[in-house]
Amino acid sequence: MFNPNVTWRRWQRKVNLTQKRHAVASAVAASAVPSLVLARGHRVNQIPEIPLVIDSLAGDKTSDIIKTLEKLGLGEELDKVRNNKKSQSRTRKI
User: Is residue 3 part of a domain?
Assistant: First the structure.
């Protein structure tokens, strides 16, 4: 696209409030279907129940929280996040 910073270009579109609410409700409902979550590339085979709701995470340090998530069966998903190219440039290795 030539010269994308023109002032008249319409970068944001108005979306009706009802349509936004419907999209959020659909996304939350889809997170409860394991086949849809797996289709998005998440590794959630070891998780006992989807969606996984955690009331509170014990510990103030990030390492404590990571250990708790690994105990719950999210080790593969955490490895996937660690190996993500986008997050490597912005975060330190865990």
Answer: no
